[in-house]
Amino acid sequence: MATTKQELETFLWEGKDKRGKKLKGEKTGRNETIVKAELRQQGIMPSRVRKKPKALFGSTGKRISARDIAIFTRQLATMLTSGIPLVQSFTIISQAAENPRLKKLIKDIQNDVESGSTLAESVAKHPAYFDELYVNLVESGESAGVLDQVLDSIASYKERIESIKGKVKKAMFYPATVMAVAISVTALLLIVVIPQFEQIFQSFGADLPAFTRLVIGASEFLQSNIFWILLVVGGGGYAVVQLKKRNKPFAHFLDRMSLKIPVIGPVLEKSALARFASTLATTFAAGVPLVDALKTVAGATGNVVYEEAVLKIREDVSTGHQMQLAMQQTGLFPPMLIQMTAIGEEAGSLDAMLNKVATFYEEEVNNTVDALSSLLEPLIIVFIGVVVGSLVVAMYLPIFQMAAVM
């Protein structure tokens, strides 16, 4: 009868070395006996070994981010290059991991590898963290006996992609945050401050200027309907996000419109091009056939418009067309990228050319985001000044009017 493989657990230990110096630390193992035996092999006489207590309320730590996976891949590549066996590398990395979820993920992969699965098969069981591209590249590296080199390439690729994502988020987050603050301040003034002025004006019994009446009307509307406004805005935002996930034509429409937004659109376009070039270069360099590589690349562009274009390119390439010609037919790729692809195809160095293109567009994204921050800052300050200033003027107009009459 087959026995279930016991999972690794974390133990806290205390002991002394050969010189009598007191030591303590953490170590993973299947049980206390094995942990004690391993400590003795390291020249440590354990005096106490106990299971590490679980976090209060069953906390499992923060979620595992794409950056965590990139760091894990880089660490694994470095250790394999240094000659450390795969299983031992997992043990070392899991001991250093601070996120309990990441630690458990690494242990699960280690258990599968120890049970006889390949690394590709092990990571494929966790599609939430390791996508099809990752699995295919690892499988390629294991088959060719160059797993350390492939993992190094994957780590570099993921670091580049995360850097691009970070820049795009920065470009979107900064103006969105400032606008949200401006709207919140305006709403606060309309709900809290304006009603106080309204009571004062009513006590005067004088006719109010049209602009003041307009602001007071807006204040009364907001006070009466704040719940419904928040419900509509929140519900509308949630509906758009869900519809984008589930409705391809709607997602295509939104992504196409986002590419046309002034200033923001070029950042999204260059980001998609950088991700396209970087992903295709990485997969092609790892020995993945071009048609298969394009299928993986489509989902990595981060934009439905470019995803559909890449799938169309894949369709054309599979029927015998040159890639640069297929790219040209989509009307989405700039002449420079098409020409570099053509040169790479002719010279048999497509991955090298695409890497250069990826580097170029990454720098373009960096420069555009930096310029965007410099451009938006004064515009946002002016916007806030105009909105808040208009409310202040609206409230003081009746006072100025009465002063003029007196």
UniProtKB/TrEMBL annotation:
Compartments where found: Cell inner membrane
UniProt membrane topology term: Multi-pass membrane protein
GO biological process per UniProt: protein secretion by the type II secretion system
CC terms in the record's Gene Ontology section: plasma membrane
Signal sequence, start to end: none
Main location: membrane
InterPro entries: GspF/PilC, T2SS_GspF/T4SS_PilC_CS, T2SS_GspF_dom, T2SS_GspF_sf
Keywords from the named record: Cell inner membrane, Cell membrane, Membrane, Transmembrane, Transmembrane helix, Transport
Homology family: Belongs to the GSP F family.
Organism: Wenzhouxiangella marina
Pfam families: T2SSF (PF00482)
Name under which the protein is recorded: Type II secretory pathway protein
